[in-house]
Amino acid sequence: MKSSRDFKEIIQLDSELSKIQDFDLLLERILFESRKVVNADAGSIYITIPTDPGEEGTEKLSIKYSQNDTIQKTLPPEQKMIYSVFSVLINEKSISGFCALRRKIINIPDMYNIPKDSPYSFNSSFDLITGYKTVSTLTIPLLATNQRLIGVIQVINSKDKEGYVIPFSKDDELLLTHFANNASIVLQRAYMTRAMILRMIKMAELRDPKETGTHVNRVAGYSVEIYDRWAHHKGIPREERERFRDTLRVSSMLHDVGKVAISDSILKKPARFTPDEYQIMQTHTLYGANLFIEVSSPTDVLARDIALTHHENWDGTGYPGWVEPITGDLIQKDSDGKPLGKKGEEIPLGGRIVAIADVYDALCSKRVYKEAWGEEEVLKELGKLANTKFDPDLIDAFFEVLPSIKQTRDQYPEDIANAKP
C-alpha cells in the first residue's frame, strides 16, 4: 500500500508545478514527476493536435517528450535522449489512442502478452532498435475540467526496490490518477498563457507572414536548449537554471512582436529592403521593448531585453544600440552621431541567445526573397560568425546541443500552421 507520505509529496508537487509558466516545460516536468510518483523507468507524454486532411477524426496525439532512465545513463552528462517525433490517431488500434478515445486508464503488466482479444496491439519497433525491453505500462488520459482531452501520459517499467521490473499496482493507478488530475489543472493555465502569446504572434503574422507560431515555438525551443548547455558549463545552480529556462521559453516567443508597428509596405515587401526601409524595420526592436516597459514580472524584464537586443552583435555592429526605447534618445553615440552598438556582455544574455536561435531558424527557412539554406551551409555560417555577430560561448553551446535543436525543428515543422500550443 502507498503511504500518506506519497500523497503529501504529490500535494507539494502541485505547488511546484503551479510556478511553471511555459506549456512545453510543464509537460516535460509532468512526465518526469509522473514517472517518479510510480517509480517508472521510462515514459512519454502526448498532447492533442488537429488531424491532417484525410485522417480520421478531428484530433490526434502528438508525442512531446520521451524519457528513459536506462538509456539516459548510457549518454554523456547533460546530453538529452533523442527520440522520434510522431503522432498517433485517436482510435482503438494503439494503447495511447485507446486510452484517449475511451478516457480510461490502461494498466498492462506485460506488453508482450497482451490478450489476443484486445483491440490494441504493441509496436515493438522501439525495443528492437534500442535493445530496451518494454514490459509493464500504465497509460492515463490528461483531461481538462470540462473533460476535454489535453493529452495522454504513458509510464513504462515500474521498478521495485531491487531494480527489477514489476507490474504497476492498483495503488499506482490511484496515485497517478490523482497526480494527473491536478497536473491537468496546471496545464490548462499554461495552455491559456501559450494561447494568448500565440494570439499576439498571430496578430503579428497578419502583418508579417514570416512571423508564424511555428517559427516562434522553434526559436523558443532552440533558445532553451542553448541556455541549458551554456548554464551547465557556467556552473549555474539547477534551481536558477529552471527559473530562467521557464522565463526564457515564454519571453523569447515575443522577440519580434514589435513588428506590428511597421507599415505593410515594408513588412510585406517581396524583396530585400532598401537602406531606408531597413532603417525603419530596425525600429521594431524599440516598439517591441516598449510593450514591456511597465514591469510586473521577471518575464516582462526578459521579454523587453530580448525584443530590444536580439539584433545586437557581439562586436558592437548591431542595432538599435544605446537608445532609450521610449523616447528614441541616444544614450551613447559614435563620432557620426549614430547610436553606439552594444557589444559583448553589454548585450543581455537573453538577447544573445535569441540572436543565434532566430538567425538559425531564418537561414533554415524559405523566405519570399530566398530559398532555405542547406544544413551544412547554415552551420558553417553560424560557426564563422562566432566572435563577431554571436557570443562564442553560446555558439559552442549551440553546436553541442545540435541533435536537440534538430529535434525541436521536427516538433514544429513549417507546414503545421494550425497546430495547437
Give descriptors for this structure:
421 residues; alpha+beta; seven-stranded antiparallel beta sheet
Polypeptide structure, described:
With 421 residues, the chain is of the alpha+beta class. It has 2 domains: 4-190, 2-Layer Sandwich (Beta-Lactamase); 208-411, Hypothetical protein af1432, CATH 1.10.3210.10. The chain has helices spanning 4-17, 23-37, 69-72, 95-102, 125-130, 170-207, 213-234, 238-251, 264-267, 275-281, 284-290, 298-309, 349-364, 375-384, 392-400, 402-411; strands at residues 40-50, 59-68, 87-89, 106-108, 137-143, 149-159, 165-166. Strands 1, 2, 3, 4, 5, 6 and 7 form a 7-stranded antiparallel β-sheet that branches. Strand 6 and strand 7 form a beta hairpin. Helix 7 crosses helix 13 (349-364), helix 7 (213-234) packs across helix 15 (392-400) and helix 8 packs across helix 12 (298-309). The longest helix is centred in the middle third of the chain and has 38 residues, at 170-207. The radius of gyration is 23 Å and the shape is elongated. It starts with a helix and ends in a 10-residue tail after the last helix.
Describe the structure in brief.
With 421 residues, the chain is α+β, with helices and mostly antiparallel strands. It has 16 helices and 7 strands.
Quaternary structure of the protein: single chain
Give the helix level as a range of percent.
Answer: 40-55%
Beta-strand share of residues = 5-15%
Total of helices: 16
Number of strands: 7
Rg calc: 23 Å
Q: Low-confidence parts, pLDDT < 50 over ≥5 residues? A: 1-5, 416-420
Number of domains: 2
CATH-assigned fold name of the largest domain:
Hypothetical protein af1432
Largest sheet: 7 strands, antiparallel
Level-2 CATH architecture of the largest domain: Orthogonal Bundle
Question: Class of the largest domain in CATH?
Answer: Mainly Alpha
* Helix/strand/pairing category: alpha+beta
Order of helices and strands: HHEEHEHEHEEEHHHHHHHHHHH
Shape: elongated
Mean pLDDT: 89
Distance between the termini: 38 Å
Question: Can you say what the CATH homologous superfamily of the largest domain is?
Answer: Hypothetical protein af1432
